[in-house]
Amino acid sequence: MLLSLPAVKQRQAGVPEMNLRNWGYDAFGEDSWQVTPTTTVNIGLRYEYTSPLYDLRNTNTNLIFQGGVPEVFIGGEQGYPKGLMYSNKHNLAPRIGIAKNLPGPELCFTLPMDLLHPGG
After folding, report:
1. In this predicted model, what pLDDT tens digit does every residue of 3-41 receive, in sequence order?
2. Distance of CA 98 to CAs 51, 67, 95, 110, Å?
3. What is the pLDDT of residues 36-63, one digit of tens each?
4. pTM above 0.90, yes or no
5. Are 12 and 39 in contact (CB under 8 A)?
6. Residues 6 or more apart whose Cβ sits within 8 Å of residue 68
7. Which residues are 80's β-sheet partners?
8. What is the separation of C-alpha 115 from the centre of its chain, rounded to a whole number of angstroms?
9. What does the alpha-carbon distance between residue 74 and residue 82 come to, in Å, rounded to a whole number?
10. Of 10, 17, 21, 75, whose Cβ has the fewest other Cβ atoms within 10 Å?
11. SS3 117
């Protein structure tokens, strides 16, 4: 970097035209319980799934290293996933919240907590 030499080299072969697709879905369920006249507890569960991007014509390729030797694989062929990576189908996100009405002119204290998954 100090000598202004390139740090990354990339080479592309073929036509850089891709027809990328993916899909996803999610669901959320929640319930509330009024524990006391001034305290409410909320519990929820969210599920998200987003498929990896894939090309309609299976033109995505990547390298894998087996025994230190790089090998090219094509997404969707020879048992490899279409999107060059396996999907994560375990994205459950629990959520809980507590709300407490405080004495005074419409004051409310809330404490939300949740577990989020990065990216999808």
Report:
1. 666 666 666 666 567 788 888 999 999 999 999 999 999
2. 34, 53, 11, 6
3. 999 999 999 999 888 888 888 777 888 8
4. no
5. no
6. none
7. none
8. 13
9. 8
10. 10
11. coil
> Residue 35 is encoded by which pair of tokens?
């524990």
Which amino acid is present at 75? G
State in Å, rounded, how far the first CA of the chain is from the last one.
Answer: 34
CB 93 within 8 A of CB 84: no
User: How far is residue 89's CA from residue 94's CA, in Å, rounded to a whole number?
Assistant: 15
Contact between residue 83 and residue 54 where contact means Cβ atoms under 8 Å apart: yes
* 3-state SS assignment for residue 2: coil
What is the pLDDT at residue 33? 95
d(CA 74, CA 51): 17
Query: What is the identity of the amino acid at 107?
Result: L
Strand ranges (DSSP E) for the chain? 20-21, 24-36, 39-50, 54-55, 61-66, 69-74, 92-102, 107-114
